[in-house]
Amino acid sequence: MKEKEMPMEQVPSRGRLAPLFRKLGDLTVTALAWGVLWAVVFLAIGFIVSVVRPQDIDAGEGPDVIARVGFGVGFFSGLVFSVLVSLVESGRPPRGLALARLALWGALASAVWPLATHVDDSMVIILCPLGAVCALASAGLRVRQCISA
């Protein structure tokens, strides 16, 4: 008897959770990739500010601390982006997504952190373009992964 012909209680459960775990893995990988990229960008900004305007960096606020903050914000924004795209763009293959629309989703996902927390809202000026770039990079990696598979 084939699985499609079996009553639901007799169907083996081994394949039901696989798509869910694959989606959770994709969400996690995207969030981690965004976190790492944002940490590198924040680290570079921290080094530049420490050289150009060292008086703007307080004690205990070295580039490493700034990079950790960047990782956290990037991870959160990548997670929001992944959830947003999976909800709004579900059913579309990665090749079928418009790059401008993905960049917009990335910018919107990046705007959530400064607008939802006590961070100065002017951070949107920096974070939204970074989110758009991360979204395009994520799309490029996803399409490349689909081509090589």
Q: For the CA atoms, what is the radius of gyration?
A: 20 Å
> How many β strands by DSSP?
0
Largest sheet: none
- What distance lies between the first and last C-alpha atoms, to the nearest angstrom? 32 Å
Order of helices and strands: HHHH
Number of domains: 1
Strand content of the residues, in percent? under 5%
H/I helix tally: 4
Output the structural class.
Answer: mainly alpha
Contiguous uncertain segments of 5+ residues: none
Mean pLDDT: 80
Oligomer: single chain
Q: What coarse outline follows from CA principal-axis ratios?
A: elongated
Binned, the helix content reads: 55-70%
Describe this structure in words.
With 149 residues, the protein is mainly α. It has one domain. It contains four helices and no strands. The chain has helices spanning 18-52, 63-88, 99-116, 124-148. Helix 1 crosses helix 4 (124-148) and helix 2 crosses helix 3 (99-116). It is elongated. The model has no long low-confidence stretch (mean pLDDT 80).
What descriptors fit this protein?
elongated; 4 helices
Could you write a compact summary of the structure shown?
This protein is mainly alpha-helical and 149 residues long. It is built from 4 helices and no strands.
